[in-house]
UniProtKB/TrEMBL annotation, chain B:
InterPro entries: DUF2849 (IPR021270). Residues 94-114 are annotated as: Disordered. This is DUF2849 domain-containing protein. It comes from Acetobacter malorum DSM 14337. It comes from the Bacteria.
Length: 564, 114
C-alpha cells in the first residue's frame, strides 16, 4: 500500500539539472557577497534593501522574515524536511504557509541568510521572485495533476512561466509586483480573476491547450475583478501574449504612485478596449517565431516532471466505506478534507493547518517532518501548499486514508474543517508584519474557537472567512464570503467586516464593507450574529454566499450592529 | 519611514528605537548610550528633543549596526514606558500570539517553540 517515488524524477515538480543548480549556487554566492558588503558598510541600507528583497528577505516588525518560494505550491518530501530543518535550526521551530503557496520564517538573522539559501539550494529551492517588483511565484491549482475535473496539468505551464520570468531582463523592475495564477480545470481554484494575469487552460480543437486570459484583477486597496482579454489563446502564443501584456504594463504602468502602480489601475485607466488594442498591437509587432512556444519545448519540460505510478487498488473503496461507517469522526474528515481524484481508488487530501484556536497556516518543524513522512509513504513523496494556507497530499489510495488521518490527528493536523468557517485565511498581521494596522491572528483564533463545534460548522456549511491586517489584503479579505479588515483608529486596532466576496468558480465578487470598524471582541460577536441571521433566513440547501446575494447586505448589517 | 512611526504630540515623551542590522531584533536607546533589548531600559526624551537625538543616532547607525531608527511616543507607567500605539506596544512586548517570544531572550538561537 505504501508508495515511494517511482523514478529518479520528483513527482509533481520540475527536476533541476546542473544549469539550474549552478545558477542557484551563483545566486547564493552573490547574496553572500552583498551581505558582507552591507555588514562592512560598503552598501548602505538603502542600497542593500532591494538586493535582500530580491532574495526574499524582509525586515519585519521583530526580526528579518525570509519568504521561501514553493513554485506553483509543489514540493517533495526531501524539500519539506529541509524547511523543517531551517525552522529548527535558524528560526523558532515553525513556519507560516502563505496565500501565494510559499512559506515564511519570521525570526531569521541576516548573517544566517546566505547559509540558509545555500541549504535551500542543495535541495533545489530558493527565495527568488518572492518579493520585489517582478513576476512573483506563479500559483496553480492545489489539485493539479490529480483532480477528477482537470482538463490538463497546469504545473507544466507554471514551470514554463517560471523559467520565462526568472531574471527576465525587461521584467525585473516592473512598476510594481506582478502575480500570475494558472488553473487546468474549469473550476477556478486559483482565484484567476483576482490576479494580474489569470489563466484557465482547456483542451483546444487540435488536442493542444488553449488559455482563457484574465488581466487586471487584484485585491489590495483597490479590489478589481480581472477582465477577460482572450478566450482562446493557443499554447504556442502563451509566452508571446504574456510578454505583450507585460510590455504594455511596463511601458505605461505608473511608477510615480505606488498605490496606482499595479496593472489593474492601468487597465481601468485605459479601459479594457484600449488596453486590449495596445496588447494586440504589441503582439502583432513582435517576432512571433522568437517567442513561439513549440509543442516540443512543452513536452521537454513535461518530461522533467515525475508522474505517480498508480498501483491497482483492489477493494480500497470498500475498505474505506467500512472505515467511514465505523468511525464518525473519520467519516466527517473524509467528507470535508478529501477531493475526487482522476485515478479510480485514489483521492487527494487537504490537511488542515487551521486547528481550533490555532494560527492559520503555521506549522511546526515536527509537523513538517510528519507531512514529509506521510507524503513519502503514501503520496509518491509529493506535497502541495494551497493558497488557502493548507497542505495537500495529492495521491492517496482510499484504503490509506484511515492511517493517514490517525497520524494527522495525533499531531494536531486532523481538523475536519476544510471549506468551513474555521478554515480561516489570515495574514500574519500586526503580530509580525511591519505594514499591518491590526493583528489578524488573535481574531482568527477567537473565531475558530467560537465556531469550533463540528456539528455547528457542518450546519453552517461552506463559508470562506478571510482576514487581512491592513488594506494590502494579503489575507484576501475582499474575496471572503465574510472578510475582516484590520484598520488603525488613532493608533488602536479596529476591524471592518466585508460581506459577499468570492474568488472562484466563475462567480468572483468583491466583498462590500458593512459599516464602521469595531473592536476585536465586538467583531467576533458581530460575525456570530451574522451567522445566526444566515441560519434563520436561508432557504433549503442555500449556501451562505447565496443567501448574501439573495438578501443583500442590509439584514446582515442590522445584525452586525445590533448591539455594537 | 512609515508615517505612523513619526506621530508625536508636541507635548509628550518618547523613546528611541531601531532594529539591529545583524538579526533585525528591536532595540531601545538606553540612558548610557547603549542599545537595550527591553523598553524598560529606554531613555525618555521630551518630544521637543527627539528629532535632534534621532539625527545623532542616524549618524552612528552604520557604526552601531542599526537600521530603521525612529522615535516612539510613550506614557510613563509604574512598570516603565508604555507606547501609546498598539503597533509599538507589540514591538515592545513581542508577538501577542506567542507569549513565549518576549524580547528578553539573549541566546543566539532560542529554545524551540513548544
Amino acid at each position: 500500500m505504501s508508495h515511494s517515488p517511482s523514478a529518479a524524477l520528483p513527482v509533481g515538480h520540475y527536476a533541476y539539472d546542473d544549469v539550474d543548480r549552478t545558477f542557484l549556487k551563483q545566486r547564493v554566492a552573490q547574496f553572500k557577497d552583498q551581505v558582507e558588503r552591507r555588514l562592512s558598510g560598503a552598501l548602505t541600507e538603502e542600497e542593500f534593501k532591494p538586493l535582500r528583497l530580491m532574495n526574499g528577505l524582509y525586515l519585519q516588525l521583530h526580526a528579518y522574515m525570509l519568504r521561501v518560494a514553493i513554485p506553483y505550491g509543489v514540493l517533495d518530501a526531501k524539500q519539506m524536511r529541509v524547511l523543517a530543518h531551517i525552522a529548527r535550526t535558524y528560526d523558532r521551530d515553525y513556519g507560516h504557509f502563505t496565500t501565494r503557496q510559499n512559506i515564511q520564517f519570521n525570526w531569521i538573522r541576516l548573517e544566517d541568510t546566505p547559509e540558509i539559501l545555500n541549504v535551500l539550494a542543495d535541495t533545489d529551492m530558493h527565495a527568488i521572485q518572492t518579493s520585489g517588483n517582478c513576476i512573483r511565484n506563479v500559483t496553480a491549482d492545489q489539485f493539479a495533476g490529480a483532480a477528477a475535473d482537470e482538463v490538463l496539468d497546469p504545473r507544466v505551464y507554471a514551470e514554463i512561466l517560471r523559467q520565462w520570468s526568472t531574471l527576465h531582463p525587461e521584467f525585473t523592475f516592473l512598476p510594481r509586483k506582478f502575480k500570475i495564477a494558472i488553473s487546468g480545470s474549469q473550476q477556478d481554484r486559483v482565484a484567476a480573476r483576482f490576479h494580474d494575469i489569470g489563466l484557465i487552460a482547456r483542451e483546444g480543437e487540435n488536442g493542444r491547450p488553449v488559455f482563457e486570459v484574465f488581466v487586471g484583477g487584484g485585491l489590495g486597496r483597490t479590489p478589481i475583478i480581472g477582465v477577460r482579454l482572450r478566450d482562446d489563446l493557443p499554447e504556442e502564443d502563451l509566452i508571446a501574449y504574456l510578454e505583450a501584456v507585460l510590455r504594455v504594463y511596463n511601458a505605461h504602468g505608473r511608477r510615480d504612485n505606488i498605490y496606482k502602480a499595479r496593472i489593474k489601475i492601468l487597465v481601468q485607466a485605459l479601459g479594457t478596449e484600449e488596453f486590449l488594442n495596445q496588447v494586440n498591437a504589441e503582439f502583432a509587432a513582435m517576432d512571433r517565431a522568437r517567442y513561439r512556444l513549440p509543442e516540443a519545448t512543452v513536452e521537454a519540460i513535461r518530461a522533467r516532471f515525475g508522474a505517480p505510478d498508480f498501483a491497482p487498488v483492489g477493494n480500497a473503496a470498500e475498505k474505506l466505506a467500512a472505515q467511514r461507517k465505523a468511525d464518525r469522526a473519520f467519516d466527517a474528515w473524509v467528507h470535508t478534507n478529501t477531493h475526487p481524484h482522476k485515478q479510480p481508488g485514489y483521492c487527494s487530501v487537504t490537511v488542515s493547518c487551521k486547528p481550533a484556536g490555532g494560527i492559520p497556516g503555521d506549522v511546526t518543524s515536527a509537523q513538517m517532518d510528519l507531512l514529509a513522512d506521510l507524503a513519502e509513504r503514501y503520496s509518491f513523496g509529493e506535497l502541495r501548499i494551497t493558497h488557502l494556507q493548507n497542505v495537500v497530499l495529492g495521491h492517496l489510495r482510499q484504503d490509506a486514508l484511515y492511517d493517514v488521518w490517525q497520524a494527522l490527528e495525533k499531531n494536531g493536523l486532523g481538523e475536519a474543517n476544510v471549506g468551513f468557517i474555521t478554515d480561516i485565511v489570515a495574514c500574519p498581521g500586526l503580530d509580525y508584519c511591519a505594514l499591518a494596522n491590526a493583528r489578524s491572528i488573535p481574531i482568527a483564533q477567537k473565531l475558530s474557537s467560537r465556531f469550533a463545534n463540528a456539528d455547528l460548522q457542518r450546519e453552517i456549511g461552506p463559508l470562506r472567512l478571510n482576514i487581512s491586517g491592513c488594506i494590502n489584503a494579503c489575507g484576501h479579505h475582499h474575496a471572503g464570503h465574510i472578510g475582516i479588515l484590520g484598520v488603525d483608529k488613532r493608533g488602536e486596532e479596529a476591524f471592518q467586516i466585508t460581506l459577499g466576496g468570492s474568488a472562484g468558480d466563475g462567480d468572483a465578487s468583491i466583498g462590500q464593507i458593512l459599516g464602521s470598524a469595531m473592536s476585536e471582541d465586538e467583531t467576533v460577536d458581530a460575525i456570530a450574529r451574522i451567522i445566526d441571521t444566515y441560519l434563520s433566513r436561508r432557504t433549503a440547501g442555500e449556501r451562505f454566499i447565496e443567501t448574501c446575494r439573495r438578501l443583500g447586505t442590509a439584514p446582515f448589517k442590522d445584525a452586525a450592529y445590533a448591539t455594537a | 519611514m512609515d508615517r505612523r512611526n513619526s506621530r508625536r504630540d508636541a507635548e509628550g515623551t518618547s523613546v528611541i528605537t531601531a532594529n539591529r542590522l545583524l538579526d533585525g531584533r528591536i532595540v531601545w536607546l538606553a540612558a548610557d548610550g547603549q542599545w537595550a533589548t527591553l523598553i524598560e531600559d529606554a531613555k525618555l526624551y521630551p518630544n521637543s528633543a527627539v528629532e535632534e537625538a534621532l539625527k545623532a543616532c542616524n549618524a552612528r547607525a552604520q557604526e552601531e549596526a542599526l537600521v530603521g531608527i525612529y522615535g516612539v511616543q510613550v506614557t510613563q507607567t509604574a512598570s516603565g514606558p508604555l507606547p501609546v500605539t498598539s503597533r509599538e506596544r507589540i514591538r515592545a512586548a513581542g508577538p501577542s500570539v506567542h507569549p513565549d517570544f518576549t524580547p528578553d531572550w539573549h541566546a543566539p538561537h532560542p529554545a524551540p517553540y513548544a
